[in-house]
Each structure stands twice: as C-alpha cells, then as structure tokens.
Amino acid sequence: MKHKKNIGHHLFLASYCIIVLIPFIWLILGALKTKQEWMVNPAGLPKYFAIENFSMSWSMVNLPLAMTNSLVISLCGTIGVIIAASLASFGVVQIGSKVSKSVYALMIAGLMIPVNAAIIPLFIMVSDLGLLNTRIGIIVPIIAFNIPFAMLLITAWMQNIPDEIFDSGKVDGATSIQLFISLAIPLSLPIFGTIAIISFVNMWNEFLLSVVLLSGPETRTVPLAVNVFRGVFLVDKGLISAGVLITIIPVVICYLIFHKSIISGLTEGGIKG
Fold first, then answer.
1. Which candidate, 92, 94, 114, 204, has a CA 20 to 30 Å from the CA of 243?
2. Torsion angle of alpha carbons 118, 120, 126, 128, nearest 10°?
3. pLDDT in tens, 193-211
4. Would you list the domain boundaries of the chain?
5. CATH (residue range 60-272)
C-alpha cells in the first residue's frame, strides 16, 4: 500500500512538473522560430533555429539598459527591505510591549493592502517630491510594499532565538545596536537569504509601479521593455519570445542556485515557530 502511495505521489509531481515546464519549453521553441514559421505553423517545431531573434531583441529596445535598471532597483530594494524589516523586527521582539505589538500588527496589516489601491496617491506623492522617472522614486515605494512580508518572517525567526543569548550580551554591557549587529544578524542569516531571493525576484518582475512611476526609456525596467516588445513587435512573436526569454534567464539562474536557501529558510522558520 505504501509503495503504491509513493508511486501516486511521484506521478502527481511528475505531471505537475510537466505542466509547469510546458510554457517554458513553448517559449524556448518560440524564440527559435522565424516570423514565417509562427504564421504558418505556430504549434510546430522550428525547422531553422532563428538565433538572430536574440541579437535583434537585445538591441531593439536596449535590453542591457533595462536589465541594468532592474538590477540596480532590485538590489537596492532588497538591501533596503532586509535592513528596515530586520531593525523593526528586532525592536518588536526585544521591546515586547503593547506598543511594539501594535506597531507589528499595523505593519503586518500592510499585507492586505494591494499596490493597486495605493497607486494613485503614491503617484501624486512621488510627483510632488519631483521623483517621477527616477530610480529612487521607485526604490522607496517598492521597499515599503515588501517590508510587511519580510517583517512577518524575520519576527517569527527572531522570536525563537533563545533569550539567554541576548541576556548574556546584556550582562556583558552590550547595547541594543551591538546585540543586533553581533547576535541578531548572524543568527538570522538563513531567513535573510530567503527574503533576499524572494524580494529580488518580486522586484525584478514588478510591473505596475514601474509603468506608473517610470515613463522614460532611460529608466525603463525589464517588464517595461517586455511591454514595448508586445506593443511594437506584436506581429513578430519570435522577437517577443526571445526578448522575454532573455529577461527571465537571470531570475531562473538565481532561483536554481539559491532555491535550497529559500526552502531551508522557510522550513527552519516554520519548525522553530
């Protein structure tokens, strides 16, 4: 019975993997098709590998600049999220008062606020500050929208660090900042790694904030560049597929390298909780 159950699990996982991989395989094959092949036989295999699709899509919408912008925004945003969320979580855990718990509850309530609901006041605020079409103008909001989830995970992690560790530091005369730097940060590195990867992927794929706050080609991010493909080269699906494939390669590589860190960080946090 147990053997049959394991076979059923394996079949289910194999089927799920195939379903998930089908769009990715379709994208790869589509990127290798010519415009004529897309028109004649869109579901068929490419007879000629149109490698030129990649070079054309790379240069036509200035993908290097878009990927650089996305990289800067994602890296700065990820660092900002980790710093802000870890400091706030450390304060909540160490103070432990009703005020700190209320602040924590208020921050977590931010998970229920979608970006769509705040996009108009956010646009007005960024415009009044003169930060439209600037990297800093999108980095700060994108950090704010990613803090609640990061704070949820970090707080749960820090709450399960033994109090004796921090008490021993206090006995030695360590200040709160010293406790945070010398104890909290090293002990929370696994969850920091998990949050870094999740936040980076989310920020790399962010579209709504980018399309509202970034209007010029010099600040265009990867999602906006892909959107240009959709508008300008609508009839050439080979170029569109090649451009999309190029832009998702960094994220796929990042996940393949660090996916174990994501799983271990989340599972260890769940076990400790």
1. 114
2. -130
3. 889 888 998 999 999 999 9
4. 60-272
5. 1.10.3720.10
